[in-house]
Design a protein that fits this description.
The protein is of the alpha+beta class. The chain has 25 helices and 22 strands.
């Protein structure tokens, strides 16, 4: 042993690298020590002090290996000290200062372990280490640290340096593998709040058979009959009545298990609950008022519907709490009634569709425009063969003669050759289910709508076919409706359009929105957490695009898509809603969700090698397609730039063991019911990786934004997008037809959802259409220190600049009077694919613009 003073103290360093401060008379030192200063930032929890000395940290060397275990050498442990209240990105935080003494050959820290010996969890935002040579190492943590008494081990964090598996520093390799192994769990047991375990399960928790036979629902996923993406496993015990179904709590459960890092922040959860409470009040007050006044059933005039936006409904004391008990979890009732007493008066905000022109929604041009610029603008197709025919080979009853004189002087053949005949097709997938759907108190058709592209770029609806199953198996009865401007024919045409948009509303919510964003993304998230280390560059690329998705999906399974949930109460498929989405999952193709391929499949674009996206859109005045391709191109450029920093050859992708395991698990397990499809990327080249990652980011960000955040603007006024129809279109010579002729508007209103369903539906989409104030948008990151790679930072800045240019072009297009579909008769500028990189406008609420990074609502 040798002795020398350092900064007025003497330090003893044992051969096991443990450091203890002693009195100057007794201290000796074996080697020169370096000081590493650390800053730890945690989110402050209301009513709780920080963990302080009850939390400690060990550093792991990223370069020096402990020969005893093959892992990076551990430093001394240090407790959190000198906590100060601070602000971090607007959040209330506590910042702690920590100082480590390490041997001179300790090397660069690559990871640290923190242990929480407090009785409460805390949220660790970040840690920064200042080295002796003025370098800094940053750790982006953003994770809950639970008490060791529960987790039985400390929490490991890696620095913001990224490594492909074969380039991982040797000192960190065992830690990388152990962390992934821990996250996978063993597939058994019921998950506890503090467990960070990612595993798969089928959708076996939608039904509640213990509550009664009418609440039983089929298990989705794991069978040929009901294929489905997998969801995160919770491990709850089976129900008593059906061992294949997972049990459910008797009341709405807002605490259903999701891994801690996937949960809403406290701020977002509070905001989500507050928004839900406000929407419930908007729904509850007029509904309860109507019950007291015996006004249940349908609205009897458009003016009465308008009253839910224009009239302030005063909250009446006494019955509010009783009514809330039927709709709101017990733990929220107090907060809801407090909110009600503070509000005193409530009303729904006015939807965009009636802000400028209250009757624009009835216009044929607006009807067609919303297929190109509404909330479900990725369904319409250019028809290449007339008449349309189903997969069974049966042809539509729409004839060429129906279209004569409606094609602006063109013959049908000429219009077809010019690619100007379009179809919105809700026929084939729906027809087999109509018999069952229509026993549930609704009256639905399967529809085909033919439209003509006019020279100015607008779509003119020219024929609607509505079909029902015939009396004999395999038979179909159909009626064709043609546009008219006066008389009974005009009123019948309006009823036919109502049935079309009801079909479209159901498809939008169940397929375009739920299935093709929320449900299909979840297996990718689980596989990413299980197979890609947080140090993997692809994990870092994808991480912001997975924020909050598993939590919002868990909440959806609890209150929206479950048996008796809000969707079953408001959408026309009702009890078979999720079964219908399973049937359409059979047709799902991940490759086809890439926007350029989707446009080619729908005959709305042509291949073009000179175009940045590889395709040329059929006509410029298609807002979703036009803006979408610009976003797609910006995202793909960013993804390609990013990947080329880490992969120098196709072999590097093929030899990346984590990427290969990730892609295999997605195909074999996460989307296991589709594992035999030949469209999966082989994932053996850089282009395969770039295309798959671009598609994932597109789905999670831009595509979801396009189908979600315009919901209130368009469907917040139910006559524009009803979720179901309660009456068929009357046949001439019947008593219903006489009723219709007597008062066509009243008949139309009686066809719409009952006021309860209608108002509840508006309340739902009011919540779903709101941005939260903590949203992180495309081109943004929660932290500026998310990577230590300067080249990546430059590439990301280039991506942000590209998005800003897209924003300018979208603004210019919306101001161009020649592009009529950009706003239409309702004068709603198309901004659903406006990125809002500055986050100046989208500070929360219903804005109809802004592309969040993830499926977060």
């Amino acid at each position: 042993m040798c002795s020398q003073p350092i900064s007025g103290l003497h330090v003893t360093v044992s051969l096991r690298n443990k450091v203890a401060l002693r009195s100057p008379q007794r201290c000796t030192i074996q080697a020169h020590l370096h000081v590493i200063k650390g800053t730890v930032v945690i989110r402050r929890t209301l009513g709780r002090p920080g963990p302080g000395k009850l939390a400690s940290v060990h550093l792991h060397s990223g370069t020096r290996i402990d020969p005893g275990n093959g892992k990076g050498l551990l430093s001394e442990h240090k407790t959190f000290k000198h906590g100060k209240k601070t602000k971090h990105n607007g959040e209330n935080t506590i910042t702690y200062r920590i100082k480590f003494h390490v041997e001179s050959d300790f090397g660069l820290p690559g990871a640290f372990i923190t242990e929480n010996h407090d009785k409460h969890e805390f949220f660790l935002i970040s840690a920064t280490l200042e080295l002796f040579d003025n370098r800094k190492i940053h750790f982006d943590c953003n994770s809950w640290v639970y008490p060791v008494s529960k987790t039985k081990h400390g929490r490991l964090f890696f620095s913001n340096a990224s490594y492909l598996p074969n380039l991982t520093p040797k000192a960190l390799e065992p830690l990388r593998e152990e962390e992934l192994h821990t996250l996978r769990g063993d597939g058994t047991g019921e998950r506890k709040e503090w467990e960070r375990i990612y595993d798969y399960d089928c959708y076996n928790d939608l039904g509640h058979p213990d509550k009664g036979h009418e609440y039983a629902r089929p298990v989705l996923g794991g069978s040929v009959k009901y294929p489905y993406p997998r969801r995160g496993r919770t491990g709850r015990p089976p129900s008593k009545e059906d061992p294949l179904a997972e049990s459910r709590p008797e009341i709405i459960n807002l605490d259903i298990y999701v891994p801690p890092d996937e949960r809403f922040s406290q701020q977002k959860m509070s905001e989500f609950i507050s928004n839900s409470i406000e929407a419930v009040l908007h729904f509850l007050i007029p509904e309860t008022k109507a019950l007291y006044q015996n006004q249940s059933g349908s609205f009897d005039s458009l003016e009465k519907i308008n009253d839910i936006y224009n009239k302030r409904n005063k909250v009446l004391d006494g019955w509010v709490t009783e009514q809330l008990k039927k709709l709101v979890p017990e733990e929220l009732i107090k907060e809801t009634t407090n909110h009600a007493s503070k509000q005193h008066e409530v009303k729904f905000p006015i939807p965009q569709i009636i802000q400028e022109n209250q009757m624009a929604w009835k216009d044929d041009e607006e009807f067609g425009r919303e297929m190109l610029a509404g909330v479900n603008a990725a369904v319409i197709k250019c028809l290449r063969k007339f008449p349309p025919q189903g997969k069974d080979g049966k042809k539509s009853t729409i004839k060429a003669s129906h279209l004569e004189g409606k094609l602006d002087g063109l013959s049908l053949d000429a219009a077809m050759r010019q690619w100007r005949i379009f179809i919105l097709d809700h026929h084939d997938y729906l027809l087999p289910y109509l018999a069952r759907i229509n026993t549930q108190g609704v009256c639905m058709y399967a529809s085909r709508t033919i439209l003509f592209l006019r020279k100015e770029g607008t779509l003119k609806p020219v024929a609607i076919e509505l079909s029902l199953p015939g009396p004999k198996e395999g038979e179909v009865t159909s009626r064709v409706f043609l546009p008219a401007s006066i008389g009974a024919e005009a009123a019948l045409w309006h009823l036919a359009k109502t049935h079309v948009v009801a079909n479209d509303s159901g498809y939008h919510q169940l397929i375009s929105h739920w299935l093709k964003t929320h449900a299909i993304i979840e297996p990718f998230i689980i596989a990413t957490r299980r197979q890609l280390s947080v140090m993997h560059p692809v994990h870092r690329l994808l991480d912001p695009h997975f924020k909050d998705t598993m939590h919002i999906n868990a909440l959806a399974r609890s209150i929206l898509i479950n048996s008796g949930g809000v969707l079953e109460k408001t959408m026309f498929p009702a009890k078979i809603s999720m079964e219908l989405s399973s049937a359409l999952y059979k047709e799902w193709n991940f490759r086809n969700q890439a926007l350029p391929i989707d446009l080619l499949e729908r005959n709305l674009a042509l291949e073009d090698e000179d175009s940045p996206s590889g395709v040329r859109i059929l006509f410029e005045d298609y807002p979703y397609g036009s803006d979408g391709l610009e976003i797609w191109t910006a995202v793909k450029t960013w993804v390609k730039d990013y990947c080329l920093v880490y992969y120098n050859s196709d072999d590097a992708v093929l030899s990346d063991v984590e990427i290969q395991a990730w892609w295999l698990e997605i195909r074999k397990t996460g989307h296991g019911d589709k594992h035999n499809e030949d469209w999966w990327y082989k994932m053996d080249t850089i282009p395969d990786l770039v295309e798959a990652l671009t598609t994932l980011i597109w789905i999670a960000s831009a595509f979801h934004a396009s189908v979600n955040f315009g919901q209130y603007g368009y469907a917040g006024y139910p006559p524009n997008r009803p979720t179901l129809c309660r009456r068929f279109i009357p046949l001439e010579g019947t008593s219903e037809f006489s009723e219709f002729l007597k008062d066509p508007e009243k008949y139309h209103l009686s066809m719409l959802p009952h006021r309860f369903e209608m108002t509840l539906g508006v309340a739902l989409i009011e919540v779903l259409s709101k941005h939260t104030t903590e949203e992180v948008y495309l081109g943004q990151r929660q932290s500026t220190e998310w990577t230590d790679n300067e080249e990546i930072r430059q590439k990301f800045n280039k991506f942000v600049e590209n998005l800003k240019e897209v924003e300018m072009r979208i603004t210019e297009k919306n101001m161009n009077p020649k592009l009529k579909n950009r706003s239409g008769p309702a004068k709603i500028p198309y901004t659903l694919l406006y990125p809002d990189t500055s986050n100046v406008i989208s500070k929360g609420g219903i804005t109809g613009k802004g592309i969040p990074n993830s499926v977060s609502i």
